[in-house]
Amino acid sequence: MRTVLNILNFILGGFLTTLSWLFATVVSIIFIFTLPLTRSCWEITKLSLLPYGNEAVHVDELEPGRKNALMNSGGTLLNIIWLVFFGWWLCVMHIMTGIAQCITIIGIPVGIANFKIAAIALWPVGRRVVSVEVAQAAREANARSRFN
């Protein structure tokens, strides 16, 4: 089912959002001051291409022992830079694509996936794209460690 939904996403506009993320990745490589944003761009490009079966998870959820206040502060600063230069127009693109996909009944699940990615597009630094199973396992491990 994931494969069918990923193909449907690609056909119904996912290729445009993926190209937009690739463009943002290339631009972030060209401008030296945005180079730290390149990894986040690439991670969300993968999610935009294959939204089903993958999930964007914050690094703190994947590796809770490596939390660092300095890195979180730097990530927040990078997210603000991201929002100003890239985030707002990528978010708008995902919202517009999601609305267009939701017009058709068959495109509603794909449109909902684009709305989820639109939220991630605003604040992506510090997120990694992993399989749904890995994300679920990380959440369960974090819950066990908090309550034990």
UniProtKB/TrEMBL annotation:
Annotated membrane topology: Multi-pass membrane protein
Cellular component terms (Gene Ontology): plasma membrane
Entry keywords, A to Z: Cell inner membrane, Cell membrane, Membrane, Transmembrane, Transmembrane helix
InterPro entries linked to this entry: Inner_membrane_protein, UCP028777, YccF
Signal as UniProt keyword: no
Location(s) in or outside the cell: Cell inner membrane
Superkingdom: Bacteria
Pfam families: YccF
Main localization, broad class: membrane
TM stretches of this protein: 7-33, 69-90, 102-123
Domain Inner membrane component, chain residue ranges per copy: 4-53, 77-127
PANTHER family recorded: INNER MEMBRANE PROTEIN YCCF
Protein name: Inner membrane protein YccF
Native source organism of the sequence: Erwinia billingiae (strain Eb661)
